[in-house]
Write a structure and sequence with these properties.
The chain has 202 residues and is an all-alpha fold. 71% of the residues lie in helices and 0% in strands. It folds into 2 domains: 113 residues, no CATH class; 73 residues. It is rod-shaped and about 150 Å long. The N and C termini lie far apart (141 Å).
Length: 202
């Protein structure tokens, strides 16, 4: 709401700022217009066959001088009347809040421009796809390395298991052999004892 007690020049300057801000805030919400070629009504493309966004101010100086003349006819047809102003207008202390709002809106527009280009331009889509492919390839490589590592650990565990099993079987066989030898000795001694006892009884 513009204070009507202010000077006409200040009121007009404030209205110019607010008109431009309203347009740019709408573009932040709904998208920045694409540049339309006048000769065929198609979206202009660059040398890489990617869509070109229509002009929008990127700093305070461009915001102040913006009058629609750098926009294509299709964009201008949908704009209210916008006029340039002195850069000093935005530097006035009483426009401090609007100046901050302009800077914030320009920052949002820059992000919006990035999002639009990435969404609609093939080159950007390809770059995203290639980045995703690279990410997935790296994941696969790490998983393959993990598989190799786990296989090596499994092989070592198997070797240890079979080594221990073989040692156990050898020890078991040796123990049985020693037991049989001891049993044979006991049997032999038992016979000898029986012979001695039988000899004493005679």
């Amino acid at each position: 709401m513009v204070d009507t007690t202010l000077s006409p020049l200040r009121i007009e300057a404030t209205q110019r700022i607010d008109t431009k801000l309203g347009i740019l805030e709408g573009w932040v919400t709904n998208g920045i217009p694409w540049k339309i070629q006048e000769h065929d009504g198609k979206i202009a493309m660059d040398d890489s066959e990617e869509r070109i966004l229509d002009f929008f101010p990127l700093n305070l100086s461009e915001f102040a001088s913006w009058d629609g003349s750098r926009n294509c006819a299709a964009t201008r047809a949908g704009l209210p009347e916008i006029r340039s102003m002195s850069r000093m207008t935005l530097n006035q202390s009483y426009h401090q809040a609007r100046r901050a709002q302009v800077l914030s809106t320009i920052s949002k527009l820059e992000q919006k421009a990035i999002e639009q280009r990435e969404q609609f331009n093939k080159g950007s889509q390809m770059a995203r796809l290639e980045a995703e492919v690279e990410r997935l390839e790296n994941v696969v490589k790490r998983q393959e390395q993990d598989v190799v590592t786990f296989r090596r650990k499994a092989d070592r565990a198997n070797e240890l298991y079979y080594g221990l099993r073989a040692t156990h079987l050898r020890a078991k066989k040796q123990y049985r052999s020693e037991i049989r030898a001891l049993e044979a000795q006991v049997a032999s001694l038992t016979k000898q004892v029986k012979r001695v006892v039988g000899f004493r009884k005679q």
